[in-house]
Amino acid sequence: MMKGPTGVIRDFPLTVYGHTQAAELGAFLSDGERTAPYPPPERVVSSPFIRCVAGGNGAIGIEHGVMEYYGTTPAGTGLHPRPAPNGAADLAAFFPGLLDDEYSSTLYPSRHGERVRDVFARAQLFADTWVGRMDDEGVRSAVLFSHAAVVIALGRALTGDWSLQVSAACAATSLYRRKPGTLGGAGDWERVYDGRADYLPAGAERDWSVGCGSEGGGELTALQDEGDFQQHSEADELPVGLAPGMDKYLRGRNVVYDPPKEAQRRPPVSRL
User: Which domain of life is it from (predicted)?
Assistant: First the structure.
């Protein structure tokens, strides 16, 4: 199975064109006149996959809670990748001087993969916890660099609208604003704009969508993605869910994130 420069499967770098888009996105986000009346982000957080980290600039926090979504692993195919398990230290050589060494992940998805309902539950639990964490740090505005499925799930979790259409084009930006008088958990946000891409010369490209459903992400799904075909110990599967100590930031209702704890028996349907 192919690996990227980090030695992790599926952790591929941006293309040259992707780097161009990332630079255009970075220029937009750092320009207060262009983001007005909203301020540039005070906190930058990214999925640990290097194609996401490359989109940020300056003190980027590595956050597994917004990492890529993979379907459940068929039996005998190992686990899904978890890049940078030690956070910024694992990526320092690739992004010297650009990472926040003090930041640690809020949440970890299961390496056995997720059903669609699980990625929605993950987004809800992450929103309910991470916003409290940012409030505790006094952060007023932040940007999350993530992947299409998770971007869509977060948009629906933040607004509480599980049928919301969310744009997830490459290097596009969606903005959400907390509703006055709320704690800022899932359902406490309103969308200001969706999939903004006017700062990209070619506009929105490679938009993506994921099936919608009832609250919590709808029905179970048979989507599966093969793992890394390696042998693993039980310790390799951990942690899963909120990182130790992060429950103190949890607000809103008690969201259950309960992805599969073992490989599934259905025949694999590879999406790679």
Answer: Eukaryota
Residue 22, token pair as written in the block: 């990332």
Q: What is the pTM of this model?
A: 0.91
Q: What is the CA radius of gyration of the chain?
A: 18
Max CA pair span of the chain:
53
Total domains in the chain come to 1
Asked if residue 3 belongs to a domain, the reply is: no
Question: What tokens does 105 get?
Answer: 């992940």
Q: What is the extent of the structural domain holding 117?
A: 16-249
Summarised one tens digit per residue, pLDDT across range 72-111 is 999 999 999 999 999 999 999 999 999 999 999 999 999 9
Distance CA 212, CA 204 (A): 21
In Å, what is the CA distance from 234 to each residue of 80, 119, 163?
14, 22, 36
CA angle, 34 then 39 then 43, to 5°: 120
3-state secondary structure 94-159: CCCCCECCCCCCCEECCCCCCCHHHHHHHHHHHHHHHHHHHHHHCCCCEEEECCHHHHHHHHHHHH
The partner residues of 143 in beta bridges, in order of sequence, read 44
Q: Is residue 262 situated within a structural domain?
A: no
- Output phi, psi for 193, to 5 deg: -150, 160
Q: What is the CATH number of the domain that holds 181?
A: 3.40.50.1240
Cα(112)–Cα(71) distance, rounded to whole angstroms? 8
pLDDT digits (tens, 9 = 90+) for 33-63: 999 999 999 999 999 999 999 988 779 999 9
SS3 (DSSP) at 218: coil
114: in domain: yes
Would 177 be classed as within a structural domain?
A: yes
